[in-house]
Design brief:
The chain has a domain of 135 residues: Gcn5-related N-acetyltransferase (GNAT) (Aminopeptidase), CATH 3.40.630. The protein is built from seven helices and ten strands. The protein is an alpha+beta fold and 226 residues long. Strand 2 and strand 3 form a beta hairpin.
C-alpha cells in the first residue's frame, strides 16, 4: 500500500477529473492526484481539527483548485485489527483524515471521496471502506451519506488522554512511557500532565465494494455511449 508520486504537485497526465460544482468552471479548475505523505501531513496539520496525520501505511490524495491545494483525503489501515471481521468482509480500508482549506469552494467533498476511491482501488485491494464521524466535533457524517455510505451504528465509547494544552493522545501514550521507565501508568500520566477522559461514541459509516463496482460499470457504459 505505497503512495505513488514523489511530490505534492498534481499529476495531470495520470489522474485528471473535472467538476464545475454549482458554478461552471474550466476543465482544469479542479483535479485530483496522489500527494506525497509530507505534503499531506503539512496540510492536515494545518486544517484538520486533530492537527495530526495518522502513522502507518497511508495513501493520500489531494484536490487542487487551479494550482492551489484545496483538500486532502488519507486512506489506510485503521487501528482496529478486527474491523474487517466485524463488517463481515475480508479487507477494509479507513478514511483516516479528510479536510479542506478555507474559504469553502464550489466542490463537494463527497465527490472527492467517490473519485479518490476509484483511484485507491487501482493501488490496493479492499472490500469495504469505513469512516468515523466524531459528534464531539459536531460531525454526523453527512458527507459520507452523500458519497453513498451507509450508517452502521456507533462505536463503543473510548478512553483517551488529554493534556493541559487540550491535545488528545491515544490511551496507550502513558502506558508506553510507563514500560520504558519502569513506573506505574498513573505515575506516567502525572509526569506527562494528562488525564483520562471518556469520549462520545462515533458514527460508523460504511461503503461496501459491490455498490462501487456497480458505479464503475455504469460510468464505463456511459463513456461507451458517448
Amino acid at each position: 500500500m505505497k503512495p505513488r508520486g514523489g511530490s505534492s504537485k498534481p499529476e495531470q497526465g495520470t489522474f485528471q477529473f473535472q467538476d464545475g460544482g454549482f458554478n461552471p468552471t474550466s476543465p482544469l479548475h479542479f483535479f485530483i492526484a496522489p500527494i506525497h505523505h509530507a505534503g499531506a501531513r503539512e496540510f492536515v496539520e494545518r486544517w484538520h481539527y486533530s492537527h495530526r496525520i495518522p502513522t502507518g501505511k497511508n495513501i493520500c490524495f489531494g484536490l487542487w483548485s487551479a494550482s492551489e491545494l484545496y483538500a486532502v483525503i488519507v486512506y489506510g489501515i485503521g487501528v482496529n485489527p478486527y474491523q474487517a471481521k466485524f463488517l463481515g468482509v475480508e479487507s477494509v480500508i479507513e478514511i483516516k483524515r479528510m479536510c479542506r482549506s478555507e474559504p469553502k469552494q464550489a466542490y463537494e467533498l463527497s465527490r472527492l471521496i467517490r473519485l479518490s476511491l476509484k483511484m485507491a482501488k487501482n493501488l490496493m485491494g479492499f472490500d469495504a471502506v469505513v469512516a468515523f464521524a466524531d459528534p464531539e466535533q459536531g460531525h454526523e457524517g453527512t458527507v459520507y451519506k452523500a458519497a453513498g455510505f451507509t450508517h452502521e451504528g456507533r462505536t463503543n465509547a473510548e478512553w483517551h488522554l488529554v493534556g493541559s494544552d487540550g491535545v488528545r493522545r491515544h490511551r496507550r501514550y502513558a502506558y508506553r512511557m510507563a514500560r520504558r521507565k519502569g513506573i506505574t501508568v498513573q505515575e506516567a500520566r502525572d509526569s506527562l500532565c494528562v488525564q483520562r477522559v471518556k469520549t462520545e461514541p462515533k458514527h460508523r459509516w460504511v461503503l461496501r465494494l459491490d455498490p462501487l463496482i456497480a458505479e464503475n460499470k455504469k460510468d464505463s457504459e456511459n463513456e461507451r455511449e458517448t
